[in-house]
Write a structure and sequence with these properties.
binds 2-acetamido-2-deoxy-beta-D-glucopyranose; alpha/beta; 13 helices; two-stranded antiparallel sheet; Rossmann fold; 403 residues
Length: 403
Amino acid sequence: MEKSSYFFTRGGGARWHYSLAKLTVWSFAFLALILIFFLRSPAPSTITSAADPSRRSLRNYNWGGSAWEKRVRASARARSSNGLTVLVTGAAGFVGTHVSSALKRRGDGALLERTGVFIVEGDINDEALLRKLFEVVPFTHVMHLAAQAGVRYAMENPGSYVHSNIAGFVNLLEVCKSVNPQPAIVWASSSSVYGLNTKVPFSEKDRTDQPASLYAATKKAGEEIAHTYNHIYGLSLTGLRFFTVYGPWGRPDMAYFFFTKDILKGKQIAIFEAANHGTVARDFTYIDDIVKGCLGALDTAEKSTGSGGKKRGPAQLRVFNLGNTSPVPVSELVSILERLLKVKAKRNIMKLPRNGDVQYTHANISYAQRELGYKPTTDLQSGLKKFVRWYLNYYSDGKKAVE
Ligand SMILES: *[C@@H]1O[C@H](CO)[C@@H](O)[C@H](O)[C@H]1NC(C)=O
């Protein structure tokens, strides 16, 4: 595989490790596009976006022009006619970073930055940008990971969820349905769609009509919107319900991440319990397992059947749980972190607030196992060990203080 594709950011400089906390927020707001050609020795090339953490608006980014187009084309030049061409949105985000580098790694095994990533900064709501990209490169697949994530932040900034997870998704689907050939789309839903469902383990056929947060509601809306575009336009659509994904380069707003930070600082951490001392547990899923599920979904996605905005026949419509099938109580998570960090946590047991978090998640993954060959191999202990190693190394120089 070719190792000479680009890493490019507007305004110069790869800044995506500048501030993880800020970047995480940014990466969900920004569109990251990756073009990747793979399968049997095609040239891997990518476009992604890195957010400039010093800016607070999406309105002033630039794209286009003949030099830009040339770079897109150059980075998207395939060596093999049977390679996939994947446009990855959200590639600067947590899952996107890992998925795009894994796609690259099918060839050479380096990290995202070092493999060379061509970066386009933009918003998935920018129709002209998406149309231009499809004009320049006929993508066979879209891996749609750009989203506004987080359960509790939805109460602070509800509009950002509607903007990214609903309006942005619809905009992407509008462009995908009208281009010729239509790409197959794999996109990130969420285990949060199970909401107040109490039947465990969660199976794809269980009810998902009781979301407990606006975040969950927008992901559920995405699943219904996917159904519509599949039904009307023949788009091939695969939704992946991720279960509490964790690992290196993870989101600082997630519990395992800020617990690590606070334990090291000697700060008290809030551990939630449900009514009557009920256990709060999560089916924590290690990033590498999620990446394998994403690639499995891309590799098994059938072609869309429509063309030029017209349906020609029924197309594939799927939704899969990607979990670990092994829920772990949050108190056990803290114990593992204590052992790995060699620091005792100051635990403050609190009642689980009713602001979006559910008590328990547990994935039934037999469908993904059968169809995608999905088989998680990393337990929480081993995964956290890798996370902690990364964390200590990443924050060791004292300059990259977590915000
Ligand atoms: C898991 O889901 C499959 C369908 O994909 C179902 O047949 C099976 O009974 C489920 N297992 C459990 C333990 O609920």
